[in-house]
Amino acid sequence: MRQHILIPTDFSDNAWSAARYALSLYADEPCTFYFSYAWTFLNSGARTHISQSYIDPLIEKSKEQLAEVKARAEKESTNPEHKFETIYTVGSLEECIEVSIKKHNINLVFMGTKGATGAKKYILGSNTVSVINKVRLCPIMLVPTKCEFVKPDQIAFPSDFSRFFGEDLLPITQLADMTKATINVLHIKSKDGLTETQNENFERLKTHLKDYAHTFNWLPSNRAKADVISDFIKENNVKILTMINYEHSFIENIIKEPIIKKLGFKSKIPFLVIPRKD
Q1: What is the CA radius of gyration of the chain?
Q2: Do you know which Pfam families this protein is assigned to (predicted)?
Q3: Most C-beta atoms within 10 A of its C-beta, which of 27, 128, 173, 201?
Q4: Over the stretch 39-68, which tens digit does the pLDDT of each residue have?
Q5: Distance between CA 59 and CA 63 in Å, rounded?
Q6: Cα separations (Å) of 266 from 112, 128, 176, 221, 259?
Q7: Could you give the CA distance from residue 12 to residue 201 in angstroms, rounded to a whole number?
Q8: Cα within 13 Å of Cα(275), Cβ side
Q9: Under 8 Å CB-to-CB from 75, ≥6 apart: which residues?
């Protein structure tokens, strides 16, 4: 089945890292890749003081850059089943992404973790955080700068078993199916410490994953969750971290935390954020 992949770009190296990763991950799959650019004023209040003669060349320049990104991707791809399109909009990044997802039936969004001006001390670029918070229509794969593609054979999925996700797990199982990867479910606490509800959800998850290579891992709870997950990623050579973004989830806490000193995985592997379906 043809996949529809959206790759927003700001023409930075990080945005191209995300594009290259997407091309590599779906190298053998029929895909249409949509490169999008949202042109907007950083300060909307300044719009009335700037003439159209100043704006028009900027718009034309960004359209040329978008066409160059598409041409670069076409050159990079070796799959005749890959198609490439561009989407140019005037408005906010979040609006552009949401409209594109609806119009083109997008399955997955690939983004860099930093933009052209991303500060190193922050966990994610401000645009990326805003997209995670506001765009809940499809999963988002966050790709670190200079991330070299390695076929993912190990996927990590932290869960507290407080709920059963069902359909929300589809992006993870589809990814595992495509790459033949093992899904490593991580729970920070011992199995003996599960409540009745958690145990029910654990059993349901076991049944849900029965047709996929998977493991359940009970991790110590005497340290910060970020450290425990980071250590597991390093020790088990995990290639992609996946999380479901729901209220009070670990990913929600991460994107509220500006300093990333504790998150060793932040600059090494892609991070698939899946919106919770209500």
Answers
A1: 20
A2: Usp
A3: 128
A4: 876 555 555 556 677 677 888 899 999 999
A5: 6
A6: 12, 13, 21, 21, 11
A7: 42
A8: 15
A9: none
Q: Token digits for 272?
A: 């698939």
What does the pLDDT read at residue 198? 93
Determine which helix (DSSP H) or strand (DSSP E) holds 186, and give its type and residue range. strand 182-188
Question: Which homologous superfamily does the CATH classification assign to the domain defined by 3-143?
Answer: HUPs (3.40.50.620)
How far is it, in rounded angstroms, from Cα 211 to Cα 162?
A: 23
Percent of the chain with pLDDT over 90: 53
- Specify the residue for token string 């920070």: 188
Contact 114, 126 (CB under 8 A): no
Domain extents in the chain: 3-143, 154-270
Average pLDDT for 26-51: 78
C-alpha distances in Å from residue 4, one per residue of 64, 66, 75, 237, 265 = 23, 18, 19, 29, 28
CATH superfamily of this structure's domain 154-270: HUPs (3.40.50.620)
Task: Please report the pLDDT score of residue 36 as a whole number.
Answer: 95
